[in-house]
Structure formats: C-alpha cells, structure tokens
Design brief:
The protein is α/β, with parallel strands linked by helices. The protein has helices at residues 36-46, 60-63, 66-73, 84-87, 90-93, 168-178, 197-203; strands at 2-8, 14-20, 26-30, 49-54, 77-80, 108-110, 115-117, 123-128, 137-141, 146-150, 153-154, 157-158, 186-189, 195-196.
Length: 213
C-alpha cells in the first residue's frame, strides 16, 4: 500500500491522505478537508481509481472538499455510526464559523470492528474512537501496520474535546484502546507529523497509566 499525504485547509493545515493499492491504483481519500481542485489534480495525476471518501470524523476541516469530489467521481461517503450528527449540521461540524454551512449525507455507515474492503486485497478495520467527536473512527490496516487516527491521536497529544459533542472521558478510553496495537504501527494523524504507537507510549501522557481505565 502507498500512502500519499496532501496538506490542505490553509491555517488549519489538515492532513488529507490517499491510501492506494499497489497493483491496481484502487484508492480511498481520507478526510478531504479543503482545496478540492488540488486534490482532484492529484487524483488525475496519479491516475487513481477512487473508490470511496472516508471520514475519520465530521469537523469542517476534514470534510470541506467532499461535495466537489463526490460530484466529480460519484464517490460514496463513508463514516462511522454516530457521526451523522456532525456531518449533517453546520453548527455541529463548525462550518458555520467559516460561513460555509456544510451539510453532507453519508452513503455508507460503518460500525466498530467492521472490516471495510476497497481494493482487490486491501481493507481496513474500523476502530471506533469517540471523544473528539461521537462517531470518530481510526482506520487500521493491520497487514500494513498503518493507522489513520484522524484527530483522536497526534504526535505527543490528542484531540480537543471542547467542541460540540466532545467528551474527554470517552477520548481517554479511545486512546487507551489504541495502546493495544503493535508498537511498530505507523500513525498518520489528522494534523502534524506521523508517529508510531510505540513512540506515543513513551511520550504521550494520555497513553500513560495515570489515564488507564
């Protein structure tokens, strides 16, 4: 699997990812938050067979380019259950703050522990990680040792919980759950640099025993 990152969204500097199957160029786009023209150029340049738009969660900086990409490629939008309340309502996904009023409808709603296949041999496991948002999820590619964590887990930190429907207790439980993944799992976060589960066990206070449940 190839992972390609595009940094979008101006001041928010959100990481948008493409997960691409090596032999087929079947791909998903993860969290297309802004700059639709830039992302479409990447799809065309790389000759990607775009299968799905997958959202780790529904804040505006992760969903802002969904409409344009879906309209161009007829690509279904995939979320985890519980996130409808964000993507469908501008006051909850915070897009009203930037005068965009984004409203989306999911085509596919996944559940915790679902296995979602999008290539000939490529699939991810859903790890539902509420806290930053109620239906946030991480995408775990077990065979590739890769986790796309959205805004649940960052290098040395975690997502904030002071937005609508955030819950700090749930977030700590979600991050604690990620400790069970292998240490060499590469973590691609929604913002900032990539990291590993092993690194976070060493440096991230939210993965320490003081937060254990």
């Amino acid at each position: 699997m190839k992972v390609k990152v595009e940094i979008v969204g101006g001041m928010m500097m959100q990481n948008c990812y493409f997960a691409i199957e090596d032999d087929t160029n079947n791909a998903i786009i993860i969290d297309p938050g802004a700059d639709a023209d830039k992302l479409i150029k990447t799809i065309e340049k790389e000759r990607l067979n775009l299968k799905y738009i997958v959202l780790t969660h529904g804040h505006f900086d992760h969903i802002g380019a969904c409409k344009e990409i879906k309209e161009k490629y007829n690509t279904p939008i995939v979320i985890c259950e519980g996130e409808e309340i964000l993507i469908e309502h501008p006051e909850n996904n915070l897009s009203y703050m930037i005068h965009s009023n984004i409203t989306l409808k999911a085509d596919i709603v996944l559940k915790d522990n679902d296995i979602f296949k999008f290539g000939d041999d490529l699939a991810f496991k859903v790890i539902k990680t509420p806290g930053h948002t109620p239906g946030g999820m991480c995408l775990y590619f077990e065979n590739e040792n890769v986790l796309f964590s959205g805004d649940t887990l960052f290098y040395g930190s975690v997502g904030r919980t002071d937005f609508p429907y955030g819950n700090s207790t749930d977030l700590v439980k979600s991050v604690t759950r990620l400790k069970n993944l292998p240490d060499n799992t590469v973590v691609y976060s929604g913002h900032g640099d990539k990291t590993t589960i092993g690194t976070e066990k060493n440096i991230n206070p939210y993965m320490g025993n003081m937060y254990e449940y």
